[in-house]
Each structure stands twice: as C-alpha cells, then as structure tokens.
C-alpha cells in the first residue's frame, strides 16, 4: 500500500558515511528483518481491532472486532521499524541498549516488539507466545481490565509513557548519565518536536560526558502529521532542517522513503554509521584523552504516517495523511466495506509466513532478536530499581548545628544542607549514582559546598572567568526547569539518586511533568515486577517570604497545593522550620523510595529551634507541641493554639507567643509546629494522616486555633475541613499580595505577622475582646508605625529586625 512519495535516501554527502549505494543487508538478513517488521505491524493492527480470531483462521466477522476501537496506528509502523533495527544492532554488536519512545501513543508497536522477543510473556505468563496468548494480547489492549494504549509502566522496557509530549529526549539523556556502557535510542515524534521542553532538551548534548556517560541516539520520526495538522519540521525544506539539527550540535543521518526494502537498507546503514561514530567518540575520549565537544550522530527517519495501512477509506486518502493518526477504519462492526478492508489489511502482512499454525513466531521473524537482558523489553535499565544501591548518607551529627537553647543562634538552612550534599557527592564519586540538578541556582540557593566534591557538568567552551565547570561534573545546571526535571526523572528511573533544587515560584513550570511522574509511580506500585526506585526529591527555596528583593513575580507558594492534589500514596510535603529539621527531612527523603518529596526551606538566616536529637524526634512525629514555647501549665487545657508550618511562619508564631506571654501572661497558649503537612489529613486519606483522636489531642476540639502557614491559607482548611474543631480554625498565609519590599513587610501585607496573630488571638478567645482591647490597640499601632518606618528608612523596625527569642 505504498504511496510512492519518496525514494529511500541515505545520509547527505556531507555526513561522510561511505558509499550510499552499498547494500548494508544481505538478502537473508533483509528478508528476516522485513519479516519481523511485518509481524510487529500485524500485531499492532490486531491489538487495535481484534478480540477474537487472532490468526485469521476464519473469515473476519464483526463479532471478532472490539466494540470500542481505541489506539493509534499512524506512528506504529515507524516505531516498529525502529524496534526491528535496534534489535539488529543490539544483537550484532552485543549492546546494552534502552529505547525511549517519545510517541508513546504508539503503544501497540512497543507491546508487539516485546511480545515477539518473549519479554512480554516472561513478565505476564498468561500472555503466552502462541495463538491463545496472541488472542489475549489483542483483547487486553485498551480494553476494560486490560492495558493502556500508551507505552505505559505496564509495558516491559518502558521508562517513558509519552502521554504528555515533550520529555522523551531529556529522559533519554538522564538515563545515559553515569551509564557509560549504555546506548539510549530516543524516538522523537514530529509533533513532540514542536514542544518547548523538547526544543530545549536538544542542548543536553552539551552536558553529556563521553568518558563517564553513555550515548544518546535521537531518532527524529517525521511522518508528516500530528492529530489534524502538518508537522512543522516535516514541512520545512530539507536543508533548513539539516541546518537546524547541526546547529543543535548533531550530525544528522537521513532515512527517507516508503519502499520497505529500500528503507530497511537505508535504516541499517544509518544505524551502523551512527553506532560507529558513537564508538569512535567514546574511544577518543576514554583512550586518547580527547576533550573537544563531539558532534553526536542522530537519525532523521521520514516515512509515511500510517505506512502500510489503508491507502483510502470511504474515498478519502488515509495513508500518509493525518487521517491515519488513530483508527483508520472506524466503522468495522457496522460497515461491511470497512470490515473487508480490515481483513485485507491484516492479510497483506502474510501472517501465515510469520506465525505457525499454533501462533508461534517463525524463526525468520526472531532471527534479529537479541537474547536475555539485551532485549529491549528485558533490559534492567528500564527497571531501574533492580540496579539501585543504598545511598551512603553521612551521620547527621557531623553537620548538625549546636542548639543549647531554642532561638539563640541563626543559620542558613540550605547552606547547612549543602555541606551534607557535598559529603554525599564525595562518597558517590567512584560509583557515580547521585546528581544534583537545578536551573542555574545551586549557588544562589546556598548549596555551593557541593562544588568541593564535584563541579558543574559542561562540555561546551570555557573562559578564564568561569568557575566550577567540569567535563566530568555531576552537578547539572541549565536554565530550563523542564530539562532539569527530565534529566532527573530519567536518572532515577534507571536506578540512581538525585535532588532537584529550584526557586519555589518557578517549580510550577514542571507541574505537568511531576503529574506524569506521580502517575507512573502510582501504577508501578501495583506491578510486582517493577522494583522501587529512588524518590524524586525537590528542594524549594528562595521562597515566597524571602523574595522581597525580586518582588511579586518571584512569589508563589502554590506547588504544595498542586502536589497534595495528587495520589496520596506517592506524595509527601515537608516544611522544616530550621537547619537541623531540614537535615533530618533531607536524610529521610534521600533514603526513601517511590515518592515525590517536596521540601520547602529557606536560604536566609533562620533561628535554630531544635537540637539534632529533638529535630529527629519532631520530624518523626511530623507535628508536635513545643511545650517550651507555650504557656500551658498542669492539667489546664490551652485557651488558644498557635500553630505554624514553615520557617517564616514559625518565627512569627514564636514572636506572637512571646508577645502574649508578655502582655497576657494569664493566657494558656499552646504552640504546635507542623513539619509534615499531610499529618493534617485524616488517616483514611493519607498514610501520614492523623486519626481524629490524635488531631483533637493536638489541636483540641473546641479551642481557637490560629494557624500561620507558609502558603495559601485555604489549603489548610481543605486538609482539615472534616475535623471536629474546623469551625474554630483560623488560617493566615500568603494571599497573593506581594511586591519588592522589606522581609517583614511581606508578612504584614499578608496578615501573617506576629502583631496580627496576637490580634487574632484576642478576637477569637472568648472574653478577650473587651479585657485585652488595649493590647490589641497596641498591636495595631505597631503595624501602622511599621508602615511609616519602612517608607522612611527602607528597613524593618528595629524591634523586628533585632528580635530574638527570650523564652
């Protein structure tokens, strides 16, 4: 069903890849490769359409066809071609290889390849490699109780579902980092190539170390169309496309055509040329000491969308058009012409030549398939938990700050954490399985101590003024949150550890990416064959309350809200109030598995509240009473609870507690600090949640609770709305009021300041409104004086700037 649009083409002469007319494949190898490709195409079509009669042993009837036709055919034949030719080079060269399938909606193709090689049956023994297993393979696809249509976690060999486009290439580079023997092929769809994250990730080749890292072979799959529109890169002139890819630092090899035999030859030549070039680059760097940034090869594969499918349906062109994107024949059950076309389409692959009468693949079909763990569906690199080693964590006491009494000293929490991360980086220097990623903010976020153990990965040019750049470095910085996230996800999914440090306001850029990773984790937790991987750890700093110099554009604490909407079994959020609690939380997160951990901590000087021993106990509880900070005595219940979560809210609550002790000494005040924000949820809704009994014991069931929270106040209400004491809960937090101003003015503008908290106590504790009216007025007067003072002096009031805890 060829459309005769192109002739198969070889790399342009400038690529210098030998004689373009020399056959790469002998007749026997060409025949067996084509047999494998046809078998994979047959299986892909069968998965989309059939629920019975998998080998077409009888005439196709409507009841053999699924009642709901779901899936994507258009990209599948191209993905099958890539799978077939990767099999060939893996087997011939004995490669460790992994493939990231950017057009993940082409799930039928990848499942087909896995079934043919036997890895699917090894993973799912009921899907046998025979007629009965083929029938189950077909029926389960996009069927209730079956498997998704994408290259999902359920698919052996997958680390990338591709449901949301744009992340394949950064995942591929993340997988290649610190895996020097691995070749990661990455199929980039032409629709995906239009996304911002993908466009930026082409620059990852400036960070790939040919000595210590593996190689990435991008395969740009240009089949011309997206869902309903032409693809940009498929419509620009060939010389413009070639110049673009060369500008990205690649050496493109072009495979163009629609005649299968010619395309097989061209693809084999391109694969051999690319892998020869990769081997030469690595040999030059590893054996000859070459330091010049290499120009890595890539393949541009231009074949028709829906290749080998129906040329026309109902008088309209389908093959090589956008109409082949999903289901080319939508009315098979009701339209006899469609049914006849489907049967002719399936039989065009000559299944009797591909499978024996029992449905087992013939020897020719399997001739190119590698063995054992070399198979794409069986590579341990795609089940990274199998390769994961415990991270060597230093004793926390080595980095703890001394706290003889609460609030007597100050430290920058993230700077203290930086010393711990330096030791982790140093202790993994030989095994190279820990990376720190971030968008140009490692030093800004006070983590620069890591440079004592490893510099910043960099393969491009350097100047004398540059600092801490290192061709072999394991600190990854690029001003693209998307690329940082993709690198780290690929790194974790292939069995390593890491941490992503980011300004709090701009981590929102990866909202969608973290969604997809959380979905991945949720599914893999239910797949016993998927080994747990290291958690995805975020350190969010330069946060909302100390972005007073950058202003409103840098003030947004909402990532926590976003995360807590996701699968509760996979998400954790921590707000350590000081340096030692940050150390304890970071230690826990870096040791954990299968979570997305979000740590929010400041980089500015912060009071030290807890010793290391107390910090460990407090973090283990997740929320607890700081009895030394309140004024509860004996068996008397508190009159009010001052609660806090976050470093700045904690300081304001402590200052408010001190004011209440001074001005209303008869008031019984309880101070509660929350580190693990999920503790506020009911136990039935989150593994870390509290029972009602615990919650009421901590916050009381009927006393006013004034809660100073780091982020948007309505989140706390949402987490606690079912609690008995919720009507008495009053939350202060960020109200989307920001500007360039003084640190204390930020909390005043959002009514989170100590004076407002005291006023809240007076307003809500029964009997205080009249009795403490003078105190309330005094608090209001300080706020008014603050307003005038900062406008005259440009700094905070002395009693604020110089405040210390005297409890």
Automatic annotation (TrEMBL):
<feature type="domain" description="Xylulose 5-phosphate/Fructose 6-phosphate phosphoketolase C-terminal">
    <location>
        <begin position="603"/>
        <end position="805"/>
    </location>
</feature>
<dbReference type="Pfam" id="PF09363">
    <property type="entry name" value="XFP_C"/>
</dbReference>
<comment type="similarity">
    <text>Belongs to the XFP family.</text>
</comment>
<dbReference type="InterPro" id="IPR029061">
    <property type="entry name" value="THDP-binding"/>
</dbReference>
<dbReference type="InterPro" id="IPR019790">
    <property type="entry name" value="Xul5P/Fru6P_PKetolase_CS"/>
</dbReference>
<protein>
    <recommendedName>
        <fullName>Probable phosphoketolase</fullName>
        <ecNumber>4.1.2.-</ecNumber>
    </recommendedName>
</protein>
<dbReference type="Pfam" id="PF03894">
    <property type="entry name" value="XFP"/>
</dbReference>
<feature type="domain" description="Xylulose 5-phosphate/Fructose 6-phosphate phosphoketolase N-terminal">
    <location>
        <begin position="27"/>
        <end position="386"/>
    </location>
</feature>
<dbReference type="Pfam" id="PF09364">
    <property type="entry name" value="XFP_N"/>
</dbReference>
<dbReference type="InterPro" id="IPR023962">
    <property type="entry name" value="Phosphoketolase"/>
</dbReference>
<feature type="region of interest" description="Disordered">
    <location>
        <begin position="1"/>
        <end position="23"/>
    </location>
</feature>
<dbReference type="InterPro" id="IPR005593">
    <property type="entry name" value="Xul5P/Fru6P_PKetolase"/>
</dbReference>
<dbReference type="InterPro" id="IPR019789">
    <property type="entry name" value="Xul5P/Fru6P_PKetolase_ThDP_BS"/>
</dbReference>
<keyword id="KW-0786">Thiamine pyrophosphate</keyword>
<dbReference type="InterPro" id="IPR009014">
    <property type="entry name" value="Transketo_C/PFOR_II"/>
</dbReference>
<dbReference type="InterPro" id="IPR018969">
    <property type="entry name" value="Xul5P/Fru6P_PKetolase_C"/>
</dbReference>
<dbReference type="InterPro" id="IPR018970">
    <property type="entry name" value="Xul5P/Fru6P_PKetolase_N"/>
</dbReference>
<keyword id="KW-0456">Lyase</keyword>
